C-alpha cells in the first residue's frame, strides 16, 4: 500500500511526457492507416479508424492540464484513482486495438511488408510503453500483454515455422520486458518515496523555523513574510489590512511575583486564544517577550475596533497555572493599511506608536494611530531607551526636601526626591520618568539605588533626622524588597528607625493582602511606612485601619485650598484628628504661603513640607543646614 501523495506523483508520471504519448499515438495510427489503405481490407480499415479515434481521445486526455498549476492542496485518493482509471482504460483500449490490428494484418493479408509494418510498430510500441509507464506497473504490464499477446497468437496460428520462432522470441522478449518494468518500478518508487520524505522534512524544518518556540504561533520572520505578501496583494484587492500590536501590561511583575513558568504559561494561554480567534483571518505572531501582533484582512477600517475589543476580552480571561488563575491585561496599538502606512515598515512603526499611546493612556485599552502622536511618544520611547544606561552613567541624583515639626520648627525628616539629568534631554521630571521606569521594570533597580544612596547620605548627617523615600507600587511587589532595605541599612549603618517609606494609595487597590504583608515586613525591620498623597484618588478611610502606616501625608491639593476653602480646612482638620486617634502622625505637604502655614498650625498636624519652608536641596546642603542650629523653618 503506498501513500496517497506517492501514488499521486506516480500517476502524474503517466502524464509527465505527453509528447512521447503523442508521438506513439500519431506514429502507430499513421502506420495503421497506411496498412489498412494498402491492404483495402474492410476489417483493417475499421481497426485503423478505431485506433485513430482512440489515439485522438488519449492525446486530448494527456494534453489536458490535470490541475491548476498554483493549486498546492493535495488531491484526494479518490480523485487520483479516477485519474488513473481513465488513463488505464485509454491505455488498455489502445493497446488491445493495436494488438488486434496486428493480429488482423497477420491473418487477413499475405503482404509480408504490411505484416512487418504492423508487427514492428506494435512490438516497438509495447517495448516503449513498458518503460514509459513503469511508474504504474500494472498499466504497463497490461499494455505490454494486450499489444503483444494478439501478435504472438497471430504468428502462432500461421503455423509457419519462421513466424512461430518469431512468436517465441517475442514471448521471451515480453517476459524480459515485464521483469525490467517491475525493476524500474521498484527504483522509481524508492526514489519517489525518498524525495518525498526529504521534501516533507525540509517543509517541517521550514515550518519550525517560522514558529515561536514557546507559544507555537508565528514568529517574527514568518510575520514579516506574511505582512509583505499581504502588502503585495493589497493594491486593488478591495480590502484593508489591520495590524493590532499588543503588549501585556506589567508582564514583568507577573514573572517576578509568580515565576518564569507562570509567565510562560500565561504567554502560551494567551497566544493559543488569539490564534484560535484570528489565526484563520490572518496571522497571529509573537514578536518577542510579551508582545504579539495580529494582522487581519478587513473590509472597512471600522472593523479594527471590534477586533481590538475582542483582543482585550481574550487577554483578560484568566489563564490557569497549577490551579491558580493568572490575570493579565493588554494595551493594543492599531494601524490600518493603506491609510496609516503604504508599506510594512511604516504600518509597523505607526502601530507601535499607537501601542505606546495606549500604554500611556492607562493600559487595558486600544488606541488607533493618529499622526499627531508621533512627537510625544517618540520622546517617551527615547527616554525609556536612555534610561537603560542612566544609572551606570551617573545621571541620577537625589535631592532632599526638609520636613519641619510644626511645634518646634525643627527639621524632623527629609523627603528624598529623585532627579534625572539626561545627557540628551537634560533634566527630566520624576512625574514624567517614574511611570516610564515603572513600565520597563527599571524602577526596581533604580529604586534600590535610591534607598541605598539616601541611607548613605543620611548616615553622614550629624542630627538624627529621618529620611522618607518614595516607593513605587512595582517595587512594593518585588519579593526581594525587604532584603534590599536590610542590605542598604546594614551597609550604610543607618539605624532602621531613621528610614521611612512613602507609598501612594494606588498601591492599596490591588492585592490588599500582599501589600499588608509587605508593609508589615517593612515595619518588622523597624522601618516606618507613610501613606503619601492622602485625599487624592480613591481615599478610603478603611485604608487607615486596614493597612499598617505610621504616618499620613495630606495631599497638597487640600493645602493649596486652605486659604479659600473652609471645606478644605474642615477636611484637613478631620484627617488630622482621625489620624491622631488611630495613632498616626500627619504631615501636610505643599506649603507655599505663610497663610497656609498659619491655617495648618490651627490644626494638630505634626509636620509640614513645602517650598515655603524649604526647597528640595542636595544632601550636603541638608548636612550644613542641620549642623547650623540657627537655621530654622520660617515662622
Ligand atoms: P511626592 O512623593 O508627592 O513628592 C512631592 C512632590 O511635591 C515633589 O515633586 C516635590 O518637589 C513637590 N513639592 C514639594 N513642596 C512643594 C510645594 O510647596 N508646592 C508644590 N507645588 N510642589 C511641592 P517631585 O520631586 O517633582 O516629585 C514628584 C513625584 O515623583 C513624587 O511625588 C513622587 O511620587 C515621585 N518621585 C520622586 N522621587 C521618587 C523616587 O525616588 N521614587 C519613586 N518611586 N517616586 C519618586
Ligand atoms: Mg512622596
Ligand atoms: Mg506626596
TrEMBL record:
Every GGDEF domain range: 239-371
Gene3D superfamilies: 3.30.70.270, EAL domain (3.20.20.450)
Bilayer-crossing regions: 21-38, 44-64, 85-106, 138-159, 165-188
Pfam annotation, one family: GGDEF
UniProt keyword terms in alphabetical order: Membrane, Transmembrane, Transmembrane helix
Domain EAL: 380-630
Protein name from the UniProt record: Diguanylate cyclase
Native source organism of the sequence: Croceibacterium mercuriale
Amino acid at each position: 500500500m503506498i501513500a496517497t501523495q506517492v501514488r499521486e506523483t506516480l500517476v502524474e508520471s503517466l502524464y509527465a511526457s505527453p509528447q512521447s504519448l503523442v508521438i506513439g499515438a500519431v506514429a502507430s495510427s499513421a502506420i495503421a492507416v497506411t496498412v489498412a489503405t494498402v491492404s483495402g481490407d474492410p476489417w483493417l480499415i475499421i481497426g485503423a479508424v478505431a485506433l485513430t479515434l482512440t489515439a485522438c481521445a488519449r492525446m486530448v486526455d494527456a494534453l489536458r492540464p490535470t490541475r491548476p498549476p498554483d493549486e498546492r492542496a493535495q488531491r484526494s485518493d479518490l480523485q487520483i484513482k479516477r485519474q488513473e482509471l481513465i488513463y488505464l482504460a485509454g491505455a488498455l483500449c489502445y493497446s488491445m486495438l493495436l494488438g488486434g490490428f496486428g493480429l488482423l494484418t497477420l491473418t487477413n493479408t499475405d503482404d509480408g511488408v504490411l505484416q512487418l509494418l504492423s508487427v514492428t510498430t506494435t512490438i516497438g510500441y509495447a517495448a516503449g510503453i513498458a518503460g514509459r509507464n513503469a511508474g504504474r506497473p500494472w498499466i504497463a504490464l497490461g499494455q505490454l500483454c494486450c499489444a503483444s499477446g494478439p501478435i504472438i497468437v497471430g504468428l502462432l496460428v500461421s503455423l509457419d515455422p519462421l513466424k512461430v520462432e518469431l512468436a517465441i522470441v517475442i514471448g521471451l522478449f515480453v517476459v524480459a520486458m515485464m521483469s525490467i518494468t517491475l525493476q524500474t518500478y521498484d527504483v522509481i518508487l524508492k526514489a519517489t518515496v525518498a524525495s518525498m520524505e526529504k521534501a516533507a522534512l525540509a517543509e517541517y524544518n521550514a515550518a519550525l523555523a517560522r514558529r515561536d518556540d514557546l507559544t507555537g504561533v508565528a514568529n517574527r520572520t514568518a510575520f514579516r513574510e506574511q505582512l509583505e505578501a499581504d502588502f503585495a496583494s493589497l493594491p486593488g484587492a478591495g480590502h484593508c489590512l489591520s495590524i493590532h500590536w499588543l503588549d501585556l501590561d506589567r508582564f514583568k511583575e507577573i514573572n517576578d511575583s509568580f515565576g518564569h513558568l507562570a509567565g510562560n504559561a500565561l504567554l502560551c494561554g494567551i497566544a493559543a486564544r488569539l490564534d484560535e480567534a484570528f489565526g484563520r483571518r490572518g496571522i497571529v505572531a509573537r514578536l518577542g517577550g510579551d508582545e504579539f501582533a495580529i494582522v487581519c484582512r478587513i473590509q472597512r477600517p471600522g472593523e479594527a475596533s471590534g477586533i481590538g475589543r475582542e483582543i482585550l476580552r481574550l487577554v483578560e480571561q484568566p489563564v490557569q497555572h497549577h490551579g491558580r488563575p493568572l490575570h493579565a491585561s493588554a494595551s493594543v496599538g492599531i494601524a490600518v493599511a493603506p491609510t496609516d502606512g503604504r508599506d510594512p515598515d511604516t504600518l509597523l512603526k505607526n502601530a507601535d506608536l499607537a501601542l505606546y499611546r495606549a500604554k500611556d493612556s492607562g493600559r487595558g485599552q486600544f488606541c488607533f494611530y493618529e499622526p499627531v502622536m508621533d512627537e510625544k511618544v517618540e520622546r517617551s520611547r527615547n527616554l525609556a531607551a536612555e534610561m537603560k544606561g542612566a544609572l551606570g552613567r551617573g545621571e541620577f541624583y537625589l535631592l532632599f526636601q526638609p520636613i519641619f515639626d510644626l511645634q518646634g520648627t525643627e527639621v524632623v525628616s527629609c523627603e528624598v526626591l529623585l532627579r534625572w539629568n539626561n545627557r540628551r534631554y537634560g533634566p527630566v521630571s520624576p512625574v514624567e520618568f517614574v511611570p516610564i521606569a515603572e513600565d520597563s521594570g527599571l524602577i526596581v533597580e533604580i529604586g534600590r539605588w535610591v534607598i541605598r544612596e539616601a541611607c548613605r547620605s543620611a548616615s553622614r548627617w550629624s542630627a538624627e533626622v529621618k529620611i522618607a523615600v518614595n516607593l513605587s507600587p512595582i517595587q512594593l511587589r518585588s519579593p526581594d524588597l525587604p532584603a534590599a532595605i536590610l542590605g542598604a541599612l546594614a551597609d550604610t549603618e543607618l539605624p532602621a528607625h531613621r528610614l521611612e517609606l512613602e507609598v501612594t494609595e494606588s498601591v492599596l487597590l490591588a492585592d490588599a493582602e500582599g501589600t499588608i504583608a509587605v508593609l508589615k515586613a517593612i515595619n518588622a525591620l523597624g522601618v516606618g511606612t507613610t501613606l503619601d498623597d492622602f485625599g487624592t484618588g480613591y481615599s478610603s478611610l478603611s485604608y487607615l485601619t486596614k493597612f499598617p502606616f505610621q504616618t499620613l501625608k495630606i495631599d497638597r491639593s487640600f493645602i493649596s485650598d486652605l486659604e479659600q476653602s473652609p471645606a478644605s480646612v474642615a477636611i484637613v482638620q478631620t484627617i488630622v484628628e482621625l489620624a491622631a486617634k488611630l495613632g498616626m502622625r500627619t504631615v501636610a505637604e505643599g506649603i507655599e504661603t505663610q497663610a497656609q502655614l498659619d491655617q495648618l498650625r490651627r490644626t494638630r498636624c505634626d509636620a509640614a513640607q513645602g517650598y515655603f519652608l524649604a526647597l528640595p536641596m542636595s544632601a550636603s546642603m541638608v548636612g550644613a543646614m542641620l549642623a547650623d542650629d540657627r537655621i530654622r523653618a520660617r515662622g
